[in-house]
Design a protein that fits this description.
Order of helices and strands: HHEEEHEHHHHHEEHEHEHHH
CATH class of the largest domain: Alpha Beta
Number of strands: 8
Number of helices: 13
CATH topology of the largest domain: Aminopeptidase
Structural class: alpha/beta
Mean pLDDT: 95
């Protein structure tokens, strides 16, 4: 696929709603298996995570493409998955390689233009081992009153921002980011809440892994699409700490030196406990390579502002979710994680194609 092809496919693969994205996906992958959510969409519509398997059932190598871990980021991920299918990369698979596409893992968040699940959880903080004591986040506790303040008037927001500035002055920018975004399990309705038990979306991924015997494969590469961190339009390939240095080394071997690592201080993210990679590490160990393909949108603190408003709406004014104010807040969240800009979409398309091709080349070399 050349640059002209990527540009031509942009209107084909990107969608403006969850329902449009699902319709396009099912048209491109008609044999998908549907996993219905107990949640419903803004208009009472049924919501589904869809899984499409391409290749021989006994293929030893598997590429897994996951969209919508953070619901509103599903616009990008769905487009990346459709691009994979439109580029017909799956039509030249050897007998030993298969592809599993998991569309709209957090279908509730995708449909409602929220980052969280129907339970109000950040799915990428929900994959911890709940048999163990819950992780503590003292920094978040210190700031919790101001993360999602009940008062979002101009004066209320000014007070919250002043508290954040004071915390940063006392502890440093990196400690502030870690406290705010690393994850917390004590404040339901708050930002980056990991929950106290597995969410429905997590259970869906676990069921998909069982249904398609992912644990039985010899070599699995997972690409998990995200948006919101880093320079506008740039697709960072980030490893999580669950896989350790060995996971990072495996990713570099496949995708090159642009892969980033928290251990090396090169990632735009902070340390996350309970990320999706924790699930893959438990299931597959050294037989997997996980990368978060993260596309930058708008710089801080823009993301904090839209998430504050989103959480305030659903915590303090849930009945207003479909009012003019509610729709305005939800649209702002959508536009932050899914910029309506042709240059951003083209950068996403081109980078996705590159990463897809690299992953398949690595798997095919294992024949």
């Amino acid at each position: 696929m050349n640059l002209d092809s990527a540009k031509q496919l942009v209107p084909v693969v990107f969608s403006d709603t969850y329902l449009e994205a699902r319709r396009k996906f099912l048209a491109a992958a008609p044999t998908s298996r549907a996993y219905r959510s107990h949640a419903t969409g803004p208009y009472g519509e049924a919501l589904f995570t869809d899984a499409s398997y391409i290749g021989r059932p006994d293929a030893k190598n598997l590429l897994v493409l996951v969209s919508g871990t953070h619901g509103a980021e599903g616009y990008c991920g769905s487009a990346g998955q459709l691009l994979f299918l439109e580029a017909k990369l799956h039509e030249a698979l050897p007998r030993s390689t298969a592809v599993l596409i998991v569309h709209a893992l957090n279908c509730y968040g995708f449909a409602w233009d929220r980052r969280v699940t129907a339970e109000g959880c950040d799915l990428n903080r929900n994959f911890i081992d709940f048999a163990e004591p819950l992780p503590q986040n003292a920094g978040y506790e210190e700031m919790a009153e101001y993360v999602v303040p009940a008062d979002v008037s101009e004066e209320g927001v000014r007070r919250a921002e002043a508290e954040f500035a004071a915390y940063q002055a006392a502890h440093g920018e990196q400690a502030f980011r870690q406290a705010l975004t690393g994850g917390q399990h004590t404040r339901p309705g708050g930002m980056f809440y990991g929950g106290t038990k597995p969410t429905e979306a997590r259970r869906t991924l676990e069921q998909i892994a069982t249904d398609f015997d992912i644990a039985g494969r010899e070599n699995v590469i997972i690409i998990d699409y995200h948006t919101g961190l880093g320079p506008f339009g740039y697709g960072e390939l980030a490893c999580e700490q669950s896989s350790g240095p060995e996971g990072y080394e495996r990713a570099v071997k496949i995708f090159g030196s642009s892969v980033t690592s928290l251990d090396l201080g090169t990632s735009s993210s902070v340390l996350i406990l309970g990320s999706q990679d924790a699930f893959w590490q438990r299931a597959l160990g050294s037989r997997h390579t996980y990368v978060c393909l993260e596309f930058g949108t708008y710089q801080r603190p823009a993301g904090r502002v839209v998430l504050r408003n989103d959480h305030w709406l659903f915590m303090h004014q849930p009945k207003a979710a479909d009012s003019d104010l509610g729709r305005q807040i939800r649209r702002a969240t959508k536009l932050h994680f899914y910029p309506q800009a042709s240059d951003w979409k083209e950068m996403v398309a081109w980078r996705c194609h590159m990463v897809h091709r690299q992953a398949l080349e690595a798997l095919n070399s294992e024949n």
